[in-house]
């Protein structure tokens, strides 16, 4: 029985990989789009031939996804690890009673709710503070930071928890303070686990579609301005998947983007494996 | 069933006093009416015990008798366990260190501790020794001197001098434990507390630790918790027998093992226990 479920899982995974890859590679094989075109910043799928179109450059979106994911990790990494340290090392009682349930509730909130809150609270707030449209990179980063925070907190807390108690006792017995023990030893020993937490957070941010799409503005622009609208791979795919004809070049290019997403996630997962293996040595 | 909350009544076995009023050595540390509670559990009952300067005091007794708990009071490691109350005085050079105004980190530099399981940090041998001194500022040159000195005193120097910068976790269990002792003496403490330091080691490593303890007492005052009565007899000058949180008997080791004054002690020593 377990063997069957294992096989179902493996077969599902590989058929998914095969399906996305075959669809994603199609436009390049048929010569409709060249790789150079795809990795350029020229996006204009509805441009007519006279206007030089249609153009299918996805660079803006690839960079957009990267920027949003990394940006939210920059905010949530330190915050999440800090919260994990607090609930394991500094106030274990309050951690167990208050923070742990809070984290679990945060995990359970659907992403559309996060997006909705971002749309009604964060975007107008940014608009009134900075005077731009409000939609854009910063709004996306803020929403995603909150979304990946619980992931980072719970995995970091596990990593810190697994640091042997003897290490702490040894350090205290030598006259180290709590902070010296945490910064000099606990974080060091837990480091691979903390890195895994952040990488998983990035992976989650990278794949998130709905909430991001609601606050990011969805224009085909390079994502190098915090307050300007932009797009991510996921937002472009969700917005256009239903509006394109199956088998058309446009539709296939969306599959190519999905393939890129999948590859990036795979790379991140491999990175986690690598980190975890290094821990065992 | 009715919950039994009997008020604590101290029934003296030794009057709670050390029997060694005739001892002339100077006292390095002394507890006065020490009581420890873990929540409702009365783990240490009215213990009065001196540690004499430059001697080894062995704390023996069956599991759960409170000897480790007692040891952990002496450098305030019990502070880390929530729900623990330590009452009474612990005097070191006339200062009561069981006082909330005492700087605990400072205190622990003067009273070092080594645990049952070797707990080297996941750093190099060198880094293990300089970890704590570095927190208080120490020059590179002093560091190197300190590392050599500490390792020489623990007999590790010749074994590890060529791999000071390799991981301490690659050492054998016995070497790791000696490194932990080296780490403790690098802080130049006055007292070293050893909590069953050899119980996780093989006989050869145990022998080395015992020799080491003998040498270290020339420089430090040592208290060692041990399950092994032969070990206590071999290496200690004084022995304190604990049972159910009480100090039953405290005497010179040669006296206590040959001529115990209490029947309980004799029963324990001869294995007619329980």
TrEMBL record, chain A:
Keywords, ordered alphabetically: Cell membrane, Membrane, Phosphate transport, Transmembrane, Transmembrane helix, Transport
Compartments where located: Cell membrane
Keyword Ligase carried by entry: no
UniProt-listed Gene3D superfamilies: MetI-like
Pfam families: BPD_transp_1 (PF00528)
Assigned GO CC terms: plasma membrane
Main location: membrane
Transmembrane segments: 7-29, 61-86, 98-123, 135-155, 194-216, 253-276
Cross-referenced InterPro entries: MetI-like, MetI-like_sf, Phosphate_PstC, Phosphate_Transport_Permease
Top-level division of the source organism's lineage: Bacteria
Any single GO BP term: phosphate ion transport
Similarity comment: family membership: Belongs to the binding-protein-dependent transport system permease family. CysTW subfamily.
Protein name: Phosphate transport system permease protein
Protein species of origin: Thermoactinomyces daqus
Upper taxonomic lineage: Bacteria, Bacillati, Bacillota, Bacilli, Bacillales
From TrEMBL, chain B:
Domain of life assignment: Bacteria
Keywords: ATP-binding, Cell membrane, Membrane, Nucleotide-binding, Phosphate transport, Translocase, Transport
Domain ABC transporter stretches: 29-269
One Gene Ontology molecular-function label: ATP binding
InterPro entries reported for this sequence: AAA+_ATPase, ABC_transporter-like_ATP-bd, ABC_transporter-like_CS, P-loop_NTPase, PstB-like
Gene Ontology cellular component list: membrane
SMART domains listed in its UniProt record: AAA
A Pfam family that the UniProt record links to this protein: ABC_tran
Keyword Manganese among UniProt keywords: no
An example Gene Ontology biological process: phosphate ion transmembrane transport
CDD domains referenced in this protein's UniProt entry, alphabetically: ABC_PstB_phosphate_transporter
Protein name in the entry: Phosphate ABC transporter ATP-binding protein
Higher taxonomy: Bacteria, Bacillati, Bacillota, Bacilli, Bacillales
Gene, per the UniProt record: pstB
